[in-house]
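Both lines are given unchanged directly below:

***
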Amino acid sequence: MTAPAPDADTNRAADLARIVGEALAHAPTDSQTEDAAEVLAITDAMVRLLIGAPLHSDGKLTIVSLAVEAGLRRNKLTHKHTGLKDLFYALVKARDQIPELVSEAARPRSRKQQEDLARVRAERDDLRSQARLRVRIVQVLEIENHRLRETNEALEQQLAARVGVPDLASRRLPP
């Protein structure tokens, strides 16, 4: 697995992890040397994972991978160094939420795409309204056609009821 090229935001997250680790490693504690070594190992592992260059783990941005990368057991992060665990989660979350900046060259293209999208949506809405209008016209024509057929059937029944009226159409001479 090749490591992606770190961008400026990833480098900032890695720098922040490095600074916090160094500050925590120099803070006075009861078992100073062991804790300082663990803190430095964790923060170095954070930096490697955040820049995408893991040495000992699969490179995923998880606590398990961080513990493997640091060469520690996972409970050291979940129970003893919870602040570093929270920092790691915050850095991962901040890294994932960094929006891509639209370059100056891409802005006109983006603006044109937005205009095209607005035009296409307007056309779609116009076509929908035309389709609804045509559906309504077809419904009205079907109703009128049905009424005309009923009227025609009623007239045919009335003509058939008149027995004494001669059928003049049958008496016509062919041309």
About this structure: The helical segments are 8-25, 32-51, 63-70, 74-80, 82-96, 106-161. Residues 8-96 form one domain.
